[in-house]
Amino acid sequence: MITYDRKSWKINHQRIFVLSAAIHYFRLPRAEWNEVLEKAKAGGCNTVETYIPWNFHEMNEGEWDFSGDKDLAHFLQLCAEKNLYVIARPGPYICAEWDFGGFPWWLSTKEGIKYRSADPVFLHYVDQYFDQVIPMIREYQLTNNGTVIMVQVENEFQAYGKPDKKYMEYLRDGMHARGIEVPLVTCYGAVEGAVEFLNFWSHSGHAAKVLDERFYDQPKGVMEFWIGWFEQWGGNKADQKTPHQLEYECFQLLSNGFTVINYYMYFGGTNFDHWAGRTVGEQTFITTSYDYDAALNEYLQPTEKYSVLSRFHSFVKWLEPLLTESDQLNVNMTLPSNVTANRIVSPDGEILFIKNGRNERVQALLTYEGQSIPYTVEAHSILPVVRNVNIGELFTIKMLTAYTTGFNTEEAVIYHETGQRSSFMVKLHKEATIVCPLPNRYQFLGNNTYHFHLFHGNELQSIQLEFKDGTVYMIQIADKQTLDHEAAHHKMKVHSESLKWETADENLDFLQGNVKVTRKPLDFSSFGQFSGYLGYESEFYFGQTGVKTIVFPRIEDPVTVHYNGKFIGKLDKLGADSLEVPVIKGINKLTCLVQNMGRYNYSQAMGEPKGISEAPALNGKHFSLLGEWQVEGTGRKHHLSQIPKIEGRIAFLRSFTNTDYNRAMLVGEGVSRVKVNGKPVKIVMENQTAWSRECAVFGVADLSDTLMNGENVLDLDVQNVSSIRRFDLYLFHEHEQIFDWKMKSCAQLDEKKDWTIFSKESTKTVFPRWYRSHFSWSHDDGSVIKVRFNNMSKGCFWVNGQCLGRYWNIGPQEDYKIPASILRERNELIIFDEEGFLPDKVTIHSF
């Protein structure tokens, strides 16, 4: 039923162009699945792609959940009912900016486990996962009861490092053994027996060349066509890929022979609860919103990109037979400077893709059957010129130098930029009367051929072909702006109800509740907790009063620090950090609160210990090692923000003085590229290293084994590295580490709270605090509901008992989705704020 050749996929022997919408069922409530699928289909997609996150379905070992919002089978059933094909991507690793790349948190508690490898321990758990999920996919294959046409093996595996052939073959064979009979696919993970796709946004010509060289007998596909991007806390708004650029890159794909496109993301959605992950870098935590600047926004509203893709899909559907059985041929025409062209030809016609690389519009001529035909291409745009395409028994399009949504029906639309002109040359197969009012002009060329000179203005125009047999064909002439109806701009209204608040302090009393006593602080997995908050507390004796530096030698999340009952600051640097504290003579109490901000979802750094995992130390020292570097043999000093180009193997050196410390941690970009006193550094965790020698990836290294008293020399390999943003050294004495800790889960919604009426006077101190309010809602308020945490700090929130995610007022996210499906006439909003900032500016918006 499903086959392929080098040109396209075939279903029941019919060639298809796969237009796939990436929609993750786990990033929106089940109640919204129907709507998002309907809108994807209405927008011209014929396929839906989804990852399947292992950890979403097995949050605790051996406890499987495929119900409610996790009902994968229901999602696949809905796709089948709507005749949408499915690309299933079960991993076991998925990346997806999702916590731990889809792996369950408890895997990191398995001693010696090696993720994404043929390690028997890892494969044991993969088999258990496959036993659960692959049979579901099997039942919904196109060959059975559904519409699954492809299943992906692993994900971007070759980007991980050296390929592990045995591992990939094990996964492939495991899928076959469990009944997968539709074609298997990979992306950057080629394994024999699977079709290889690539992931990219631009440079599709290069991608096509790679695929042709290595996989010539397979159709060309892009598994993740990145039409937007994700956002991270403290980063920029990710709206850099414009609708105009999207249209350009779509036509690039066609011109280079791609016949499988999966838009990543078509709908991005939301990282509800604590599912957002952490990508490569020091502090690249993913926001709660996964809007992705996609075709459908986080609230399922169409964007300008939806309009662009709808037009593009109509064009593709019209020319599907041509596009799926074409060859690329030479372009025999003279082109202006900085203008290039690709040409594809099939028995059904041809398309000339004219690409303008200039910063200004190009107007030129092309010659066809003795006619000089003008064409216009906007700056950095592609114009698809259609030639020799039959429109049934009515006429043949000899030449079209404008865009079109296709001629599949009895009415077509031809469009271009506002104010521009184009040509439409047709040969009629039957006698017809032409109704073409000004300003559309045309001329008769003989042999039933007509050349229409079109103008694309603000007013819709038309050409009507009235054939003698009574058939009428209408062609609308429009400008692009008229077609691109942006998503309706509803006026956002602030919820009219004034929110009244109650408040309660978080219980940081470590004398009651489920308290665990440990020698040193435990990371989240070692403690036995997926995510949320952990509290750490230790008491120690000090002989004198003063200000001391405490070094935290291993942290992987921001830490809120309280000392002797008072807030004294936050640790925002990850890997390791330090803080000055006012030590008193006698017993001192150190209390820390940590929110797990997401595990690495990419790279060999996966499996890092979340939270605090090493004992802090008193009387520590911190150095920034960004400055004072020298090229061996020269006296000039350099800063790592501007690394000089070094030819050959000349050393790049810096020294520091150690005064009797016996422990040292180096944190920053490129730590795996350094030697200390001639010896390679010891990486804290084997899989926490920088995962490529070709870039300065963030990492943590233990220098203790190489540390000497007196002068120590660092030798940094800066080949292929132009700048490094962080290179910090932390020194401390092992005997001054603070041991004997109490730990407990914090910020638990179901824990009893002493609610009181909120007042600004009672909440002046900085302290982790709860807030509760109620608001009303009706369907008349609209289906888009947002909450904005103005003037608050960092935390998480619940509506009607459901955790809807983390918030953090460092941007770029400001608004947080409240799904209409969880709302009632009267609703409860609960907020946990790490620093107890006031909620009086919190607003709820709806439209």
From TrEMBL:
<feature type="domain" description="Glycoside hydrolase 35 catalytic">
    <location>
        <begin position="11"/>
        <end position="314"/>
    </location>
</feature>
<dbReference type="InterPro" id="IPR001944">
    <property type="entry name" value="Glycoside_Hdrlase_35"/>
</dbReference>
<dbReference type="InterPro" id="IPR017853">
    <property type="entry name" value="GH"/>
</dbReference>
<dbReference type="Pfam" id="PF21467">
    <property type="entry name" value="BetaGal_gal-bd"/>
</dbReference>
<dbReference type="InterPro" id="IPR048913">
    <property type="entry name" value="BetaGal_gal-bd"/>
</dbReference>
<protein>
    <submittedName>
        <fullName>Beta-galactosidase</fullName>
    </submittedName>
</protein>
<dbReference type="InterPro" id="IPR048912">
    <property type="entry name" value="BetaGal1-like_ABD1"/>
</dbReference>
<dbReference type="Pfam" id="PF21317">
    <property type="entry name" value="BetaGal_ABD_1"/>
</dbReference>
<dbReference type="Pfam" id="PF01301">
    <property type="entry name" value="Glyco_hydro_35"/>
</dbReference>
<dbReference type="InterPro" id="IPR031330">
    <property type="entry name" value="Gly_Hdrlase_35_cat"/>
</dbReference>
<feature type="domain" description="Beta-galactosidase galactose-binding">
    <location>
        <begin position="768"/>
        <end position="826"/>
    </location>
</feature>
<keyword id="KW-0326">Glycosidase</keyword>
<dbReference type="GO" id="GO:0005975">
    <property type="term" value="P:carbohydrate metabolic process"/>
</dbReference>
<feature type="domain" description="Beta-galactosidase 1-like first all-beta">
    <location>
        <begin position="521"/>
        <end position="623"/>
    </location>
</feature>
<keyword id="KW-0378">Hydrolase</keyword>
<dbReference type="GO" id="GO:0004553">
    <property type="term" value="F:hydrolase activity, hydrolyzing O-glycosyl compounds"/>
</dbReference>
<comment type="similarity">
    <text>Belongs to the glycosyl hydrolase 35 family.</text>
</comment>
<dbReference type="InterPro" id="IPR008979">
    <property type="entry name" value="Galactose-bd-like_sf"/>
</dbReference>
